[in-house]
Design a protein that fits this description.
10 helices; three-stranded antiparallel beta sheet; 2 domains; alpha/beta; L-2-Hydroxyisocaproate Dehydrogenase, Chain A, domain 2; Lactate_DH/Glyco_Ohase_4_C; single chain; six-stranded parallel beta sheet
C-alpha cells in the first residue's frame, strides 16, 4: 500500500491569514464594556485587578500622568489575560482612550496620612481634579464617575460640578469600606461568617461616621433586641469599640504597609459590577443630597444606603434612625459642609 503524500502547506501571506480562514471586515463592537481607572498607584491597580477578576470589563484602560508606569502595570496584568476573560488592557496618559467608557474610577490624588486633616491635601487634589475630570468627561460623557479620592464627599461634589453630570452619575466610595469593616468586626466578635451580618456605617467616613446600631442584625435578627444598650457608652459588652476599630483601621494599615488598597479595590469593583450589570445592589455610598435632609439645609455629598444600577444611584433606602443616630448624622453633615465651603468659590 502506497503511503499517501501530504501536500505541503501553501502559506500565502502570513500565519494569521492562513490560520484564520476569513476575517470579518467590520467587527461588531457594540457590546464591549470599557472601564477606565485613572491612577496607577497601588489603589488604582487594586481596583483594576478586582474589576478584571470579576470579568466585568472587556476593555480596561489605566490612565496616569506617568505613562511608563501605566503601560508597565497594564502589560504586567495582560500577561495573565487568558485567565481574566481575555480583556483588552491599555496603559496610557491619553484621555482619548476613555472614549465611550461605561464607568470611570478616579483614584488619583494625595491621600490622608496619620497626622493629616482633609484641609492638608484638599487643595492639591482639587487642582488635580480640575485637570482630569473635564478630560475624562470630554471622551466619556455618558459614563458614571466613581470617586475614591479623599476627602471623598468633597471630591465627589467637586467632580459633579466640574463634569456637569447629573448627580446620580457621580458616586463616591463613601463609607462602603467602613461598612464592610464594621460587618467583618461584628462577625469576628460573634464567631460567624461576615455574610450573615447586616451592618451599616453612614455619614462622613472617618471619626464623624455614624454606626447604625439600630439596624445591626444577624440573619435578620436585630442585635438591639438582645442588647438594648448596644453601641452606647453604657453597653456592658462594649460593642462600641468596634466602631472605634473601624475608624482606626486606615491609620493602622498605613503605618504597617504604607498604604491600603485591596479592600478599597474590591469595594470599588462591587459598585462597578452593579453599574455595568444593572443589578440594583445596595451599598452605603456617597451621593448628592439637595438641601440635605439630615438636619443641614445645604447641598452636600454624604453616605447613605443607596440602590446602584446602570444610571448610578437610582434611589435611597429609608431607615428609621434613632434620635441619637439622627443627632450624629447632623453633626456629620455639618463637618462635611464646613470642609466643603472652603473651596466653593473655586468650583461654582
Amino acid at each position: 500500500m502506497t503511503e499517501s503524500r501530504r501536500r505541503p502547506f501553501d502559506i500565502a501571506g502570513n500565519t494569521v491569514t492562513f490560520l484564520l480562514t476569513k476575517q470579518a471586515e467590520h467587527l461588531v463592537d457594540s457590546h464591549r464594556i470599557k472601564v477606565v481607572v485613572v491612577g496607577s498607584a497601588p489603589k488604582g491597580v487594586a481596583v483594576a485587578i478586582a474589576i478584571l477578576s470579576k470579568r466585568l470589563a472587556s476593555e480596561l484602560v489605566l490612565i496616569d500622568a506617568n505613562e511608563d508606569l501605566a503601560k508597565a502595570e497594564a502589560e504586567d496584568i495582560s500577561h495573565a489575560a487568558a485567565y481574566l476573560g481575555d480583556p483588552r488592557i491599555i496603559g496610557t496618559k491619553d484621555y482619548a482612550c476613555a472614549r465611550d467608557a461605561a464607568v470611570c474610577v478616579i483614584t488619583v490624588g494625595s491621600q490622608s496620612h496619620e497626622d493629616q486633616q482633609p484641609s492638608d491635601y484638599l487643595d492639591h487634589n482639587l487642582k488635580i481634579f480640575k485637570d482630569i475630570i473635564p478630560n475624562v468627561c470630554k471622551y466619556a460623557p455618558n459614563s458614571v464617575l466613581l470617586i475614591l479620592t479623599k476627602p471623598v464627599n468633597i471630591m465627589s461634589y467637586v467632580a459633579m460640578k466640574l463634569s456637569g453630570f447629573p448627580p446620580n452619575r457621580v458616586i463616591g466610595i463613601g463609607t462602603f469600606l467602613d461598612s464592610c469593616r464594621f460587618q467583618y468586626f461584628i462577625a469576628q466578635k460573634l464567631g460567624i461568617s461576615a455574610s450573615a451580618v447586616q451592618a451599616l456605617i453612614i455619614g462622613e467616613s472617618g471619626p464623624a461616621s455614624v454606626p447604625v446600631w439600630s439596624a445591626v442584625a444577624c440573619m435578620g435578627m436585630p442585635l438591639k433586641e438582645i442588647n438594648k444598650e448596644i453601641g452606647t457608652k453604657t453597653d456592658p459588652e462594649s460593642w462600641g469599640d468596634l466602631h472605634t476599630k473601624v475608624i482606626e483601621t486606615d491609620k493602622e494599615l498605613v503605618a504597617r504597609k504604607g498604604y491600603h488598597s485591596w479592600g478599597m479595590g474590591i469595594c470599588a469593583s462591587e459598585i462597578v459590577d452593579a453599574i455595568v450589570r444593572n443589578t440594583c445592589a445596595c451599598f452605603t455610598v456617597s451621593t448628592f443630597l439637595k438641601g440635605c435632609r439630615h438636619g443641614l439645609e445645604k447641598d452636600i455629598f454624604m453616605s447613605l444606603p443607596c440602590v446602584v444600577g446602570r444610571n448610578g444611584v437610582q434611589s435611597f433606602v429609608r431607615l428609621s434612625y434613632t434620635p441619637k443616630e439622627q443627632e450624629l448624622m447632623t453633626i456629620s453633615c455639618q463637618r462635611i459642609y464646613e470642609t466643603q465651603k472652603s473651596i466653593l468659590d473655586e468650583i461654582e
